[in-house]
Amino acid sequence: MGRQVALIRGDGTGPELVDAMIRVVKASKADVDLISCDAGLEWWEKNGGYSFIPPETWEILEKSVACFKGPTTTIPKPETPKSVAVSIRQKFKLFANVRPIKTFPNTSGPLGDVDFICVREATEGLYTGIEFRFDDIAIALRKISRRASDRVTRYAFYLAREKGLKKVVVITKGNILKETDGLFREVVEDIAKNFPEIVVDYYFIDNFAQQLVKNPQRFNQNVILSTNLFMDIISEEASGLVGSIGCVYSANIGENYAMFEPAHGSAPKYKGMDKVNPTATILSGAWMLDYVGEKRASKAIFKATNDVIAEGKVVTYDLGGKAKLSEMAEAIAQKTEEILR
Predict the structure, then answer these.
(1) What distance in Å separates the CA atoms of residue 185 and residue 54, rounded to the nearest whole number?
(2) Quick one: 108-242 is in which CATH superfamily?
(3) In this predicted model, what pLDDT tens digit does every residue of 272-313 receive, in sequence order?
(4) What are phi and psi of 307, to 5 degrees?
(5) What is the pTM of this model?
(6) 161 Cβ partners below 8 Å, 6+ apart?
């Protein structure tokens, strides 16, 4: 029996996407034990409570070496639970949300080929959920701590060094948020002294957003680092450069635990239609396999996915094809088996 990974199927299109990922993982013959557990809006609407995650799921999460989370729905309504992803990130101190943004073979995006990595502090900022309402005034507190900033910044610089990348681009709004972003920048400047081979560049969030659509290639071979909300928005914007948010996979990394998930939402309007792009979910699963030590299987799935997309014959509508979700997943599974023979 392989290493235990908690498996949350999610809401909306989540279950069918996770089934696609499981099909590909089985094709890779990876030695991993996926333990299904409940979480998400659909579970909560039936059961209620203070959390989208039931106690029995927390027990499975704590006994697992990692978690795979399908897309879940979070409703924008006061006095409802925080999202599944935020809850797990904060519980296990998963301080770095990492989203590679890379053009797939033979699929140039609208603004040309890109290749960079977004690193997002994932435990605090405005996502701490510290909010108050006094009659007609609502207040949210943005928490930036030296400790959390230090952890994510060190991760970003070590990632750049590991990948042979020469620049870390830091995004703030330090001219307005002088204390919170001021502290974040102080931490970056201190840590950067230990990485003299890496150039550090600073952008304000509004200017970076403009540059990302004006000349995205200037950020190729860079690590892009920012606080929670800023990088959440920027990485979503960046997904458009590779054609679809359905292609963006992600990991949430802590010191002793990790959660893997597609970067996109649950797309409930497409639920049960066998339509949406499974790439992000499948590659998040491949990354999870790498994390638990199944590196050969992981590499095979990444190569198989790249090959299927490059061929362009069995891809979903957002990639210019006509294939169903399940058909694209099956093509990737079969290609994975071929690679591993």
Answers:
(1) 38
(2) Isopropylmalate Dehydrogenase (3.40.718.10)
(3) 999 999 999 999 999 999 999 999 999 999 999 999 999 999
(4) -65, -45
(5) 0.94
(6) 195, 197, 198
Q: How many CA atoms lie within 13 A of 246 on its CB side?
A: 23
Domains of the chain by residue range: 1-91+265-341, 108-242
Contact present, 234 and 212 (Cβ < 8 Å):
yes
CATH match of 1-91+265-341 with 3.40.718.10:
yes
Tell me which amino acid residue 195 is. F
Q: How far apart are CA 53 and CA 30, in angstroms?
A: 27
- With contact defined as beta carbons under 8 Å apart, do 181 and 144 qualify? yes
Distance CA 50, CA 60 (A): 19
Quote the CA–CA distance of 96 and 179 in Å, as a whole number: 22
Which residue, among 295, 294, 282, has the nearest Cα to 326 in the 3D structure? 282
Q: For 36-66, what is each residue's pLDDT tens digit?
A: 999 999 999 999 999 999 999 999 999 999 9
Q: Tell me whether domains 1-91+265-341 and 108-242 share a fold.
A: yes
CA 328 – CA 278 distance, rounded (Å): 7
pLDDT over 70, % of the chain: 99
The residue count for the chain:
341
CA distance 97 to 175: 25
